[in-house]
Amino acid sequence: MSSKRYLEEFKIEAVKQVTEKGHSVAEVATRLGTTTHSLYAWIKRYDPQQPKTIESNDPSADI
Question: Is the pLDDT of residue 24 over 70?
């Protein structure tokens, strides 16, 4: 069984419905036919308010 693929623009618009318009994740996921798990992942990836983790190979960065 293959999973459905969504365009990046679709994901960004879905995230905006939650972050900018205040709709619940469950409501948006149901309306758009996706899962809440996917929508939470998209929010983590596309929401500019989410902190980005930066990987570093510099051992002094842990200090």
Answer: yes
